[in-house]
Design brief:
The protein has 115 residues and is an all-beta fold. It has no helices and eleven strands. The protein is globular, with a radius of gyration of 14 Å.
């Protein structure tokens, strides 16, 4: 199983970015997907979760109302649409999935928000 993150970059405060996480490999069963982030000098923190069906989503309070997690089954890809970005959103963003009883992480994609 491999997760590949992409879509990060440099954006001004108030701007938007869309992150992608492409999932590949042999997977059995259903799995939820998550986004985490890690800012310099800080611990990795939870950002958002989406259920297998896509019908259930959950967000950290710090991003609620600004970020939207979604998934495209045809492309085996999970997205994180980030709007109204703030400088405090600057971090490396990682997707995570639990498949086949194991946790898998993407390699991370850097998001930098300038003030």
């Amino acid at each position: 199983v491999q997760l590949v993150d992409s879509g990060g970059g440099l954006v001004q405060a108030g701007g938007s970015l869309r992150l992608s996480c492409a999932v590949s490999g042999r997977i059995s069963g259903y799995y939820a997907m998550h986004w985490f982030r890690q800012a310099p000098g800080k611990e990795r923190e939870f950002v958002a979760t989406i259920s297998w069906s896509g019908g259930v989503t959950f967000y950290a309070d710090s991003v609620k109302g600004r970020f939207t997690i979604s998934r495209d089954y045809a492309k085996d890809t999970v997205y994180l649409q980030m709007n109204s970005l703030k400088p405090e959103d600057t971090a490396v963003y990682y997707c995570k999935g639990t498949m086949n009883g194991n946790n898998y992480w993407g390699q991370g994609t850097q998001v930098t928000v300038s003030s």
